[in-house]
Amino acid sequence: MDPKPQDHQSPSSTPSQLRQVLVLRPPPVFTVHEQDFSSKFHILKAYDSPLPTHDFLQTHAQSVKAVLCSGIGPITADVIRDLPALELVVTASTGVNHIDMAECRRRGIAVTNTGDVFSDDVADAAVGLLIDVMRRITSGDRFVRGGRWATSGEYTLGSKLACKRVGIVGLGNIGSRVATRLKAMGCLVSYTSRQEKHTTPFTFYPNILQLAFNSDALVICCALTNETRHIINNKVMMALGKKGIIVNIARGAIINEVELVKCLVEGEIGGAGLDVFENEPNVPKELFELDNVVLLPHRTAFTQESFYNAAQILIGNLEAFFTNKPLLTLVPNEF
Fold first, then answer.
1. In whole angstroms, what is the distance from residue 310 CA to residue 30 CA?
2. Tens of pLDDT along 243-269?
3. Residue 83 in contact with residue 283, Cβ under 8 Å?
4. d(Cα 324, Cα 23) in Å, to the nearest integer?
5. For residues 56 and 34, is the Cβ–Cβ distance under 8 A?
6. What is the CATH number of the domain that holds 77?
7. Which domain covers residue 311, as residue numbers?
8. Which segments constitute the D-isomer specific 2-hydroxyacid dehydrogenase NAD-binding domain (predicted)?
9. For residues 225-251, b (16+ Cβ closer than 10 Å) or e, as one string?
10. Which residues are catalytic?
11. What's the pTM value of the predicted model, to 2 decimals?
12. Which pLDDT tens digit goes with each residue over 197-216?
């Protein structure tokens, strides 16, 4: 069932009921800009309630039409079933893998995201991670802070970025921006994606193994789906080779994390820059001591500017919904 425009107001409703927005767990964008949300909507804070989540949802089951969420507060089929009046899920992210899209489609619930508001910041960070691993910047910082410069003086050489063959896994909004940045820095860019992009100058490979075999580094930018889960496996890492580098700014489960750790520890690949992990916030402890691995806490999208812009999009979608206007960033539900 496809989402249909409906009248979200009724003559007997009060203003607070008209603009109720449920938040299971506060997205970081909401936390930073909570005042802006609270001035426009009546926020139902499940996370502040002494009631268990199920009981809280039951209390507001007949009145909640809109939910604001992010990856830290998944919208599961159980949550959706507890909210029979729900018509809109607004996520403070680009990805929607934390939302049961099939159940939303069945119920006719619309889903919006933040569009491409985070794309430039994530692309910048992806390139930053690649440079960091190749030039050993974080490793060098630890070298100096640990006092080894004064006592040893020997420091492992890094590698030049220009002329490296970099494969982009997923040439969408973010992947295209990463590719453009790397091309400007002298890299030889290729990609694999669901479909070949005939308008781009980059070399297309029809599968991930061919891309890895012809790359010095892979930058993962694709969405997490059933098809892409663990698409980066041992075979791909072996094809990339002992000097190969993997950067992941997409979703942790796109990589088989157990095999990645094994390959890194055993020296089967050259290094990794990781912003995302399979079981966040848990990170494999084996990675902590590796100088050829750079770790971030799923924060490549987090800048002051992107948070402000994202908040405006989230508020804009909620206001559009409550005033029966077209949603700004409706996610096509093909799940």
1. 9
2. 999 999 999 999 999 999 999 999 999
3. no
4. 21
5. no
6. 3.40.50.720
7. 15-117+304-322
8. 127-298
9. eeebeebbbeebbbbbeeebbbbbbbb
10. 251, 280, 298
11. 0.88
12. 999 999 999 999 999 999 99
